[in-house]
Amino acid sequence: MLFDGQTIQVKPIEDGIYDVVFNRKEDAVNKLDQATLAELREAVTMLAGTEGIRGVIFSSAKDSFIVGADITEFMQMFSATEEEIVEGLLSIHQIFNAIEDLPCPTVAAINGLALGGGFEVCLATDYRVLANNAKVGLPEVKLGIFPGWGGTVRLPRLIGVDNGNEWVCGGVEKRADAALTDGAVDSVVAPDQVAAAALDLIKNCNAGKFDYAARREEKKSPIKLNQIEQMMAFESAKGVIGGKAGPHYPAPMAALKAIQKHANLPRDKAIEVEAKGFVKVAKTEVCASLVGLFMKDQYVKKVSKSFESKAEPVKKAAVLGAGIMGGGVAYQSASKGTPILMKDINDAALDLGLDEATKLLNKRVSRGRMDAMKMASVLNKITPTLNYGDFGSVDLVVEAVVENPNVKKAVLAEVEGELPEGAVLTSNTSTISITELATALKKPENFCGMHFFNPVHQMPLVEVIRGEKTSEEAVARTVAYAKAMGKTPIVVNDCPGFLVNRVLFPYFGGFSALVSDGANFQQIDKVMERFGWPMGPAYLLDVVGIDTAHHADAVMAEGFPDRMTHEGENAIDRMYKLERFGQKNSKGFYRYELDRKGKPKKLADEEVPALLADVVAEPREFSDEEIIARMMIPLCIETVRCLEDGIVATPAEADMGLIYGIGFPPFRGGALHYLDQMGLDKFCEMAKQYEALGPLYQPTEKMKQMAASGEKYFSGEKA
């Protein structure tokens, strides 16, 4: 053993060839934290001075290669001055340059995931051998930054500007075949052949079959394109990358500009340009929000894992109700490997559920993500039934019938008697109290909420709702099933609307009040979409369904009469009365026609202003700032109330619930992070201007106290 550290070991293989093994002794994965980088510096320095060295392989003793940098160290690093950050980056560059400058051929033996800084280590070597089931990539732009350890310099020189721009600015993870096609790796082999293939490459270099020195020089030299070719490559990329990134995510365009700026420079000058460009994006609020989201997502996963560890796995599930939602649940369960029964009261309903599952599977086949044999296998895991005959072997049931408490109670009581001892019964209700539904059951401890969001296959969140009598075992098993379905579960306590809808309806309330006061709903939509929402509130109501929203609004008003009731008929009431239910019947605030792909296309409807004329005030102009304030204040205050009332356990779970459940703009980090960035004192001052609009616009006493003392909801790593 040449070097034996806590995260890296250097072992001789044979005849002057050494293996640098990334192997964190206390962790399941390798990551590049300061301790690992220090050991890497020491190991490479030692190798550089080793007599008779003939080759170095960089490998991993874990299932992955290196998953990236240690994100927990980011915020501390980014809080330094720009000069200090650049100095720190250039110090780390010395390590990567030392790898690239070793006096012998070098190969990265990539046995698993190599992402971010982990892939930048690989790029510093002369050659890369990749396992055929592994992925590589530079996903940094998803955190609001771009590669800062040589990725923007080495990759475009290795695979060409066009491919380099796509990899760096798109933040994509590439499968082995794509990485080989683009030239990012040199060989793809079976996982058990990676080490042997890497050693063979070293030997071929030493035998003169491959010119590793020429390969190395190419990475260290300016990009080999003339000025006209460079202009065409970068200018054409700006439109595509800028269009995809949008105005709220500056990192992709900043990365592109950095690549263009250092294209004509040799390595050592180019990395200085990269470092200075990196600092600019690292200091943005978008970066703070996206890194914070990553940390919060990790925290939410940790919480769900703690539940999961206490639960027996769900080996067989069932869904009651075979509509669009039931079919979506059946598809998601079966596609992730858990067989599921799908029960309804007639064949037509079952056909609807199977059609939904088949449609989703056909899309995957048509996109090349699944073959016909796999599709058939998934469909075979869905068993349609008109009776409870096979329910005796079911571990968990999802009730997904109509959103009516009496119907749900009757169905739940009926199925409870058909289940084996210990089976968990859940309701996919969006608003109805779990505690109230449990009154129909003999064993309420085995019952909880499992609220999916539509469309099930796309929306990542599942709210797991704990009723007053729900056992921890029932919660744990439901969380485990949601995880097995590929979802992100967040456990919340029972109240009308739970977390997500309880927060969403004050937002809709702000919208309704604005329209009642004479605001143009199309202007509101445009302003809120520019703010960062995937769709404005009127469009969102059409997508959710005006009838669904009207029903939920009544439930919320009954549950929170002090702030969620309204006097008189508003725009949503009028739309409901006129049976303009949105996309589901092609008319709501907008009208809808199917496009060439069969998707509903939103179009302005000139009839709507006249239909609303007698329930709204005279039209008047509202500034963008006033629209944003009147929409966001109720949402933020209700999120705080959910936290203060113990509906959601932590600020991290509250923010992730809104990001995953209703599409809260990720670059703003969630409602509570948004409050922290604005400052609670400034938020309370803003809310005071609108307090006459009612309790929805009045911060809680605790918010006022926190504002006065300068407190935040996040500090440190989950900020």
Automatic annotation (TrEMBL):
<dbReference type="GO" id="GO:0036125">
    <property type="term" value="C:fatty acid beta-oxidation multienzyme complex"/>
</dbReference>
<dbReference type="InterPro" id="IPR050136">
    <property type="entry name" value="FA_oxidation_alpha_subunit"/>
</dbReference>
<keyword id="KW-0413">Isomerase</keyword>
<dbReference type="InterPro" id="IPR029045">
    <property type="entry name" value="ClpP/crotonase-like_dom_sf"/>
</dbReference>
<dbReference type="GO" id="GO:0070403">
    <property type="term" value="F:NAD+ binding"/>
</dbReference>
<protein>
    <recommendedName>
        <fullName>enoyl-CoA hydratase</fullName>
        <ecNumber>4.2.1.17</ecNumber>
    </recommendedName>
</protein>
<comment type="similarity">
    <text>In the central section; belongs to the 3-hydroxyacyl-CoA dehydrogenase family.</text>
</comment>
<dbReference type="GO" id="GO:0004165">
    <property type="term" value="F:delta(3)-delta(2)-enoyl-CoA isomerase activity"/>
</dbReference>
<dbReference type="InterPro" id="IPR006180">
    <property type="entry name" value="3-OHacyl-CoA_DH_CS"/>
</dbReference>
<dbReference type="Pfam" id="PF02737">
    <property type="entry name" value="3HCDH_N"/>
</dbReference>
<keyword id="KW-0560">Oxidoreductase</keyword>
<dbReference type="InterPro" id="IPR006176">
    <property type="entry name" value="3-OHacyl-CoA_DH_NAD-bd"/>
</dbReference>
<dbReference type="GO" id="GO:0016509">
    <property type="term" value="F:long-chain (3S)-3-hydroxyacyl-CoA dehydrogenase (NAD+) activity"/>
</dbReference>
<dbReference type="Pfam" id="PF00725">
    <property type="entry name" value="3HCDH"/>
</dbReference>
<dbReference type="GO" id="GO:0008692">
    <property type="term" value="F:3-hydroxybutyryl-CoA epimerase activity"/>
</dbReference>
<dbReference type="InterPro" id="IPR018376">
    <property type="entry name" value="Enoyl-CoA_hyd/isom_CS"/>
</dbReference>
<dbReference type="GO" id="GO:0006635">
    <property type="term" value="P:fatty acid beta-oxidation"/>
</dbReference>
<dbReference type="InterPro" id="IPR008927">
    <property type="entry name" value="6-PGluconate_DH-like_C_sf"/>
</dbReference>
<dbReference type="Pfam" id="PF00378">
    <property type="entry name" value="ECH_1"/>
</dbReference>
<keyword id="KW-0520">NAD</keyword>
<keyword id="KW-0276">Fatty acid metabolism</keyword>
<dbReference type="InterPro" id="IPR001753">
    <property type="entry name" value="Enoyl-CoA_hydra/iso"/>
</dbReference>
<comment type="similarity">
    <text>Belongs to the enoyl-CoA hydratase/isomerase family.</text>
</comment>
<keyword id="KW-0442">Lipid degradation</keyword>
<feature type="domain" description="3-hydroxyacyl-CoA dehydrogenase NAD binding">
    <location>
        <begin position="316"/>
        <end position="495"/>
    </location>
</feature>
<dbReference type="InterPro" id="IPR012799">
    <property type="entry name" value="FadB"/>
</dbReference>
<feature type="domain" description="3-hydroxyacyl-CoA dehydrogenase C-terminal">
    <location>
        <begin position="497"/>
        <end position="592"/>
    </location>
</feature>
<keyword id="KW-0443">Lipid metabolism</keyword>
<dbReference type="InterPro" id="IPR006108">
    <property type="entry name" value="3HC_DH_C"/>
</dbReference>
<keyword id="KW-0511">Multifunctional enzyme</keyword>
<keyword id="KW-0456">Lyase</keyword>
<dbReference type="GO" id="GO:0004300">
    <property type="term" value="F:enoyl-CoA hydratase activity"/>
</dbReference>
<comment type="pathway">
    <text>Lipid metabolism; fatty acid beta-oxidation.</text>
</comment>
<dbReference type="InterPro" id="IPR036291">
    <property type="entry name" value="NAD(P)-bd_dom_sf"/>
</dbReference>
